[in-house]
Specification:
globular; 2 domains; 601 residues; mainly alpha
């Protein structure tokens, strides 16, 4: 349970020092480890080899490090939207262990395990072992192994973007050390935090922005109090900035202005406005606002049950009665959560965290002490990470990594801050409020497990028949690809190793698995990709120079980008160029997906 002391941050911590014997504390640590290992193992077993997608995004993440391992240079020879840390690290892994899909999925499992561990360590700064274990287990179920809709690319094992997974993990590590620095003012914590911040800058913009916001918040508080250690700040932040500047400066020298205009911040982002609006809820704001309101009712209802329990504690006698009330209200909280869809239940989280941020800010202003600084850092970090999702906050889609800090902050609010606040009002321990908070986390985890099970039953109804094997590994593919994607991989696998193949508009994972090569430094040919020097004439020139033996045309939908189909209302010149020089030699058709194989005329 929580111990309430004078400092708000200390009121949220329970280091359990001096409580119980050393052997008892060791036993509790062991039990927590066993619980988290069991949660990780269960998730890995249930989702085994169902990570990634044969067509969408996965091919880029698999093939980019392969090309780098062969000597190509990122941003000059290979187009890439994100930072260089993940692909170059994976290229090193390929050189060490071979070019296979299981090299990256093994690394991805390690990322998922690290996410659970870092989540636990952050929560332990605010709560006891079992609350922290429940929260970290929830992160494993809801985020690390998340899968709620097609395609299955929003998880940490084989994500749509490894820089997203690395970025948020490094950012969370940075925030962990930053919170420790806010409490102990140890230089090494600040330097560790800044070092991880610099590495975050080599991954993806959204986690970097969130981490910078949290660092900025603490720096502002310290400056306002007159407690800023400018020498430490200069060393820590100067070092982090130097790493980022040197790395990207080196790529700027090699890749030229294309580093910025053709890769990291492509003009094609302007062409993706409809896509961005759709996945931020702003294309239908009234519907999104209703989801937020419903979520607030559910999450607020669970917090309200905790308040009812805290009031009841004043009228009952005996620990057994209090726990009984807490268990009953906790079950009610789980039932409340189960009334929602997993896509909607977390939508109100930003407003709950905003209220907590306001309360924390007022407390900091009144006390002018370091009480509550760590909690403020976590809240700012979580809210900045969720900005990218707009009105569509959930664990789905980009929320698999951007919502993880918000989930942790919600755990702290529900299981630590709210019970501590009720205790100050009622003068009682608020055990029931904490039990209701833990029940809320359990409800959220089980709700997402239910939706994942449903999604998997739709996408992988006959997993054994959906397993596709190739020279570079195997993958259980989505049911809609059967009859087309699997046969295309089989056809390419029978070609000589190194056969050059280009897949249009997307699907280079088929090339990778089959042992063939993508001769292009481009992996997708979607509407936003045709921009800058990669317009149609530029792509045609690159394809002509690459001279692939085969082209694969698949029926990958592009309606989310506001277009009908490849070659129909965009990329017509490229399709015509291919049609003049190549002819259809094989056609594979499944129930809802098709692939045409074209060879040279």
């Amino acid at each position: 349970m929580i111990r309430v002391n004078k400092s708000p941050d200390e009121a949220l911590k329970d280091k359990e020092t001096g409580s119980g014997s050393g052997s008892r504390r060791s036993a509790m640590r062991l039990l927590v480890c066993v619980a988290l290992v069991a949660a990780f193992s269960h998730n890995a077993h249930v989702t085994w080899e169902r990570w990634g997608d044969l067509i969408i995004d996965t091919g880029r993440e698999l093939d980019t490090p392969k090309q780098l391992a062969e000597g190509k240079v990122l941003y000059r020879d290979v187009r890439y939207w994100y930072g260089p840390l993940a692909p170059y690290w994976h290229a090193l892994l390929y050189r060490m262990f071979g070019v296979r899909i299981d090299v990256l999925t093994t690394m991805g499992l390690g990322l998922a395990a690290l996410l659970g561990w870092v989540s636990y360590r952050i929560l332990r700064l605010f709560a006891g072992r079992w609350v922290s274990a429940a929260g970290a287990g929830g992160v494993l179920y809801v985020h690390a192994f998340g899968f709620y809709r097609y395609p299955n690319i929003f998880n940490f094992v084989l994500p749509y973007s490894y820089p997203a997974a690395y970025g948020v993990l490094l950012a969370m590590g940075s925030i962990f050390f930053l919170i420790r620095y806010s409490r102990r003012a140890r230089a090494r914590d600040l330097f560790f935090s800044c070092g991880l911040l610099g590495l975050t800058g080599l991954c993806k913009l959204e986690p970097l922005f969130a981490a910078l916001a949290a660092h900025g918040a603490l720096a502002a508080i310290r400056i306002w109090r007159g407690e800023a250690d400018w020498r430490r700040f200069a060393i820590g932040y100067g070092g982090a900035a130097t790493v980022v500047v040197l790395v990207f400066g080196g790529f700027r020298v090699v890749a030229g202005p294309g580093l910025w205009h053709e890769n990291l911040f492509i003009p094609g982002n302007v062409n993706a406005n409809q896509f961005l609006l759709k996945h931020s809820g702003f294309d239908s704001p009234f519907i999104a606002a209703r989801r937020v309101a419903m979520s607030l009712m559910g999450l607020g209802g669970c917090l309200g049950l905790g308040a009812i329990g805290a009031i009841a504690e004043r009228r009952v006698i005996g620990r057994g009665s209090i726990i009984a009330i807490g268990v009953g209200l906790g079950i009610a909280a789980i039932v409340v959560v189960w009334m929602f869809d997993a896509a909607d239940v977390l939508a109100g989280t930003p407003l709950i965290l905003l209220a907590a941020a306001v309360a924390s800010g007022i407390a900091i202003l009144r006390r002018r002490s370091n009480g509550g600084d760590g909690f403020a850092v976590l809240i700012v970090f979580a809210m900045a990470a969720m900005l990218r999702m707009g009105l569509d906050c959930s664990a789905e889609h980009y929320g698999f990594y951007l919502m993880a800090p918000g989930f942790l902050a919600l755990v702290v609010v529900a299981c630590a801050v709210w019970p501590a606040s009720l205790r100050r009002v009622t003068g009682k321990p608020a055990v029931t409020a904490q039990l209701c908070g833990v029940a809320l986390i359990i409800g959220l985890a089980t709700l997402h497990v239910r939706k994942r099970a449903f999604a998997m039953s739709i996408l992988y109804p006959q997993a054994e028949q959906q397993l596709v094997r190739g020279p570079r590994g195997e993958m259980i593919i989505a049911a809609n690809y059967l009859g087309a994607g699997d046969r295309a991989v089989s056809f390419l696998s029978s070609r000589p190793r190194g056969t050059k193949v280009v897949v249009l508009p997307e699907g280079s994972a088929m090339t990778f698995l089959s042992g063939c090569d993508n001769p292009m430094g481009v992996h997708t040919y979607l509407p936003p990709d045709f921009s800058g020097t990669y317009d149609e004439s530029g792509i045609v020139a690159r394809v002509s120079a690459a001279s692939p033996e085969y082209f694969l045309f698949d029926s990958r939908a592009v309606t989310e980008y506001g277009k009908v189909a490849f070659g129909e209302d965009y990329a017509g010149a490229l399709e015509a160029w291919v049609g003049e020089r190549y002819q259809v030699i094989e056609t594979f058709t499944g129930r809802s997906f098709g692939v045409r194989v074209l060879g040279r005329r």
